[in-house]
From TrEMBL:
Name listed for the protein in its UniProt record: Betaine-aldehyde dehydrogenase
PROSITE patterns, sorted: ALDEHYDE_DEHYDR_CYS, ALDEHYDE_DEHYDR_GLU
Superkingdom field: Bacteria
Family: Belongs to the aldehyde dehydrogenase family.
Residue numbers annotated as active site: 251
Pfam family name, one: Aldedh
EC number(s) given by UniProt: 1.2.1.8
Residue span(s) of domain Aldehyde dehydrogenase: 20-474
Gene, per the UniProt record: betB
């Protein structure tokens, strides 16, 4: 037991914890030490069946409530999450290794924001009245049914809530499968939803890797799948869902550009580049990992960046003075080390970092490469670790063209004092989520998602409602029916 509020079993099904030790054991490793802190079991077919049966039953009753009644439960869950922010944050730190300094503000807090936001919206979900000159039509916004959420490991609480909150607000039920790397936090969210008044079966959590995910997606009781994960997984999940014409949301990876012009406020630009590459030790999908810096300010940018990186405090993630944690797993650390080696091999200049820290756990120093060129592996592939690639450019058109030369399109950012240029550049960049003189802000009121290979659909904001509901159109004739015979 790592913490007194640690979940008490592997799964949460039909309003209660559930164990089935026939499932393959999955070790839960604390990234800061490498120690095993818990073991969960992958869901057996019996567990998956129980979860889907419970969800289908709960959904039909839940959909009959008014939106305001549903919203009240979500808002109560948001309040409980906020009251328990510290214990949820500690659990998130154990699950991911992210520093408590971060988890206290970015994880359960964002989950609470989502539950509160969609709880507030639930009562206002309506259709429209369409006058047709005598006859008329109306639309009704209906839930999809049972939705499946599949999560990545970087933000386990936030990802579960960003999917559950709009799904439940619209009258759906959910079966959520966390990443096998971070199985703990979603279980606590399920517990809190029950405490807040969600009926048994409305939000279920089952563990497992890809096999469990595929079993959920291919079940005929499932109407929609929302995945947060990598592009290769997205292809498989999208294909499986398409076979039965299921709705999808795909929140996938990226290799996002951050453009820094010579007229930018340098201090803010350096701060933005730090947030775009090193927060959560670089394990954020929307990170601006291709940092295009205008040649005239490149030296000043690199000098100030190197200076500010001296402020990194790597250490025990539970110590609130620590601001830089480990990679989530040994496997992820090895992947990132492989990319660092590739960067050196392909001729990028290592400015700082590039090494493991001399301590237990999966710590890698924040790493900056300069003189990176577009063809290098570290400029093309998502690394998902603390590795910044700095590329230089001469002018705006060149920077935009090179920024867009990628199959991804999750996010993009620009730092400039020229307001016209800021909007012109953002208008030309192919990305779903953009930032001007900022980076990586993710308020729940703003739609979040990507274009191209980075995804389909949007999370958060009113936009998410479109992805968790469908319209029924009803034509109403006010007079007699005229038929030709
Ligand atoms: N766009 C976003 O909002 C967003 C947010 C966070 C992370 N990500 C992306 O997630 C990736 C990192 O997370 P990861 O390593 O956990 O990703 P991953 O693709 O390896 O796994 C994601 C989830 O999919 C499951 N899965 C794997 N194979 C599956 C299959 N065949 N069928 C069904 N489910 C399957 C995994 O068990 C896990 O729960 C990065 O690419 C990152 O950019 C995207
Ligand atoms: O990791 C992707 C989602 C996200 C972006 N910012 C915070 N969370």
């Amino acid at each position: 037991m790592i913490y007194e509020t640690q979940p008490t079993a592997s799964h949460y099904v039909d309003g209660a914890y559930l164990e089935d030790t026939d499932g393959t054991p999955i070790p839960v490793i604390y990234a800061a030490t490498g120690a095993r802190i818990a073991t969960v079991h992958a869901a057996t077919p019996a567990v998956i069946d129980r979860a889907l049966t419970a969800a289908a039953r709960a959904q039909s009753d839940w959909a009959r409530l008014s939106g305001r009644e549903r919203g009240r439960v979500l808002i109560r869950a948001a309040q409980i999450l906020r009251e328990r922010n510290r214990e949820m944050s500690v659990l998130e730190t154990f699950d991911t290794g992210k520093p408590l300094q971060e988890t206290l503000v970015a994880d359960a807090a964002s989950a609470a924001d989502a539950l509160e936001y969609f709880g507030g919206l639930a009562g206002s979900l309506t259709g429209e009245h369409i006058p047709l000159g005598g006859d008329w039509a109306y639309t009704m916004r209906e839930p999809l049914g049972v939705c499946v959420g599949i999560g990545a490991w970087n933000y386990p609480t936030q990802i579960a809530a960003w999917k559950a909150a709009p799904a439940l607000a619209c009258g759906n039920a959910m079966v959520f499968k966390p990443s096998e790397v971070t199985p703990l936090c979603a279980l606590k969210l399920a517990e809190i939803l029950t405490e807040a008044g969600a009926p048994a079966g409305l939000f279920n959590v089952v563990q497992g890797a890809g096999e469990a995910g595929q079993a959920l997606i291919s079940d005929p009781r499932v109407a929609k799948v929302s995945l947060t994960g990598s592009v290769p997984t997205g292809r498989k999940v999208y294909a499986a869902a398409a076979a039965d014409m299921k709705h999808v949301t795909m929140e996938l990876g990226g290799k996002s550009p951050l453009l820094i012009f010579e007229d930018a406020d340098l201090e803010n630009a350096v701060g933005g580049a730090i947030l775009a590459n090193f927060y959560s030790s670089g394990q954020i999908c929307s990170n601006g990992t291709r940092v295009f810096v205008q040649k005239s300010v490149k030296q000043a940018f690199l000098a100030r960046l190197t200076e500010r990186l001296k402020g990194v405090v790597m250490g025990d993630p539970l110590d609130e003075a620590t601001n830089f944690g480990p990679m989530v797993s040994e496997a992820q650390m090895r992947i990132v080390e492989g990319y660092i080696a590739k960067g050196v091999e392909e001729g990028a200049r290592l400015v700082t970092g590039g090494k493991r820290a001399a301590r237990d756990g999966f710590f890698l120093a924040p790493t900056v490469f300069a003189d990176v060129t577009d063809g290098m592996t570290i400029a093309r592939e998502e690394i998902f670790g603390p590795v910044m690639a700095v590329l230089d450019f001469e002018d705006e058109d060149e920077a935009v063209a090179r920024a867009n030369a990628t199959e991804f399109g999750l996010a993009a950012g620009v730092f400039t004092r020229d307001i016209s240029r800021a909007h012109r550049v953002i208008g030309a960049l192919k990305a779903g989520t953009c930032f001007i003189n900022s980076y990586n802000d993710a308020p729940v009121e703003m739609p979040f998602g990507g274009v191209g290979m980075s995804g389909v659909g949007r999370e958060n904001a009113k936009a998410a409602i479109e992805h968790y509901s469908q319209l029924k159109s009803v034509y109403v004739r006010m007079g007699d029916v005229e038929a030709p015979y």
